[in-house]
Design a protein that fits this description.
With 258 residues, the chain is of the alpha+beta class. The chain is built from 9 helices and 5 strands. Strands 1, 2, 3, 4 and 5 form a 5-stranded antiparallel sheet that branches. Strand 2 and strand 3 form a beta hairpin. Helix 2 runs antiparallel to helix 6. The radius of gyration is 45 Å and the shape is elongated.
Length: 258
């Protein structure tokens, strides 16, 4: 079946295809209205060496970096993603889904703190809560180990919580799936009806065209006679008795005599 045939079937069975397309449009519109737009806000923080460790660098923490800071950043991120941290953040007013992780392609102890939700204002506020909570947890970790204040690792905010941006990828995927599914089902229904109609129009027997009935009738009679003779073993004997050999020649001589 080529494209031209497909187009002819679609035009011929438009009364099946059109309702399917209308239902698809309604389904797509429902997905557009029911699936909310999600917003994402993100901040970037870094861990800094302690005051005691930066004395040799005139107190500049950005000149003093250690591998242990990256390990501490990884441990802090895991703690912020734990169930206990989720309960604490929820009690502080955080809404939506938060995530803490080491920044991609980071060359130091940088962390991304992000929040995803459906309310722009709430997402921004939640990201601010998460950023402050991360610094609090860092200090609590070290206090539990009885670290002196001068030796404590510090946190600095590199990028404050940003204005929430719309995340349309998930919504767009749902829209595409709804539209594609509805269109495919409409085509399947159209060609199913076409196949049923074609089977109904062709029951399996040949319908003679006008003017073909007499010839076909005669042919069928002779064919039936031949079939009957072929099935009767005495048919040849009857033909021989009814027309003896040589009768044709005698008849010809009689007709030719004066």
């Amino acid at each position: 079946m080529d494209l031209a045939e497909i187009w002819r079937v679609m035009r011929r069975r438009w009364y099946v295809l059109l309702p399917g397309l209308l239902i698809t449009a309604a389904l797509t519109a429902a997905v557009y209205l029911l699936v909310p737009v999600e917003y994402r806000s993100q901040s970037t923080v870094t861990l800094l060496n302690s005051k005691k460790a930066t004395v040799a660098f005139d107190g500049n923490p950005f000149l003093s970096t250690q591998a242990s800071l990256t390990g501490m950043a990884d441990g802090l991120a895991r703690n912020l993603n734990s169930d206990d941290a989720k309960k604490d953040l929820k009690s502080l007013g955080l809404t939506g889904v938060h995530e803490a992780k080491i920044a991609d392609n980071a060359l130091g102890p940088y962390m991304w703190l992000s929040v995803v939700g459906t309310d722009q204002a709430a997402v921004l506020k939640s990201d601010e809560i998460l950023t402050k909570y991360a610094e609090k947890r860092l200090l609590e970790f070290q206090s539990q180990q009885s670290v002196t204040p001068d030796a404590m690792i510090r946190m600095a905010t590199i990028v404050p919580p940003q204005k929430p941006e719309a995340q349309t990828k998930a919504r767009l995927q749902f829209l595409i799936m709804a539209g594609a599914l509805g269109f495919v089902l409409s085509l399947v229904a159209t060609f199913f009806v076409e196949a049923r109609r074609r089977r109904g129009a062709s029951p399996g027997k040949h319908r003679p065209a006008p003017g073909e009935g007499a010839d076909s009738g005669e042919g069928s009679d002779s064919g039936e006679g031949s079939d009957a003779d072929a099935g009767d073993p005495t048919a040849t004997l009857r033909m021989t008795v009814a027309q003896p050999a040589g009768s044709g020649a005698a008849g010809s001589r009689t007709a030719g005599s004066p």
